[in-house]
Amino acid sequence: MKDASSLAPIPPMSRAARLAVLIAAFAGLVFDGVELGLMPVASLSVSRDLLDTAYTPTIGGDWFARFTAALMLGAALGGIVLGSLGDRVGRTRALGISILFYSLFAGLGAFVRTQEQMLVLRFLVGLGVGGVWPNAVALVAECWPDKARPTVAGLMGVAINTGILLLSQVARLWPITPDSWRWIFKLAAAPALLGLLVLTFLPESPKWLASRAVGPISDGAEEGKRKAGGPLQELFRPPLLRLTVIGILIGSIPLVGAWAASKWMIPWADKVGGATQAGYKALTQGWWAFGAILGSFTGAQIASLLGRRRAYFLISAGATVLTISMFQLTAPLRPSFHPVVFAQGFVATLFFGWLPLYLPELFPTRVRAAGSGLSYNVGRFATAAGVLAAGLLFTAFNGSYPTVGALAALIYALGMVVIWWAPDTSRKQLQE
Question: In the CATH scheme, what is the code of domain 13-202+230-421?
Answer without folding.
Answer: 1.20.1250.20
